[in-house]
Amino acid sequence: MRRVVVTGIGVISALGLNSNEFREELFAGRSGIKQITSSDVSEMRFQKAGEVRNFDEKDHFDSKQLMVLARFTQFALVTAREAIKDAKIEWI
Prior knowledge:
Strands 1-2 form a two-stranded antiparallel ribbon. It is globular and about 55 Å long. The longest helix has 17 residues, at 71-87. By secondary structure, the protein is mainly alpha-helical. The protein has three helices and two strands.
C-alpha cells in the first residue's frame, strides 16, 4: 500500500467556487442541490442537481484558452492552481 500526503486543497463544487466557500457552506449544513438553471429541464423527471453556479471562466482564462478548454477542464485547472497555492509550492 502507498501512502498519500495531501498538501493543498482546491475546490469547485455546488457548495462553492473555492475551498473557503465550500468549507463555510459545508459546516453550515447547507445543500448544494437546487433547481437546475443551466438547461431546460421542464420535461425531465428530476429537476434538481448539484450545479456549479456563478463560475465565470473569464476570471481565470483568456479568450484563446477558452476556445479549447471544456468546462470540466477549466474546473480541473482552477482547482489545481488553488491546491498548489494552498500548498505553498514554488516552482523553480
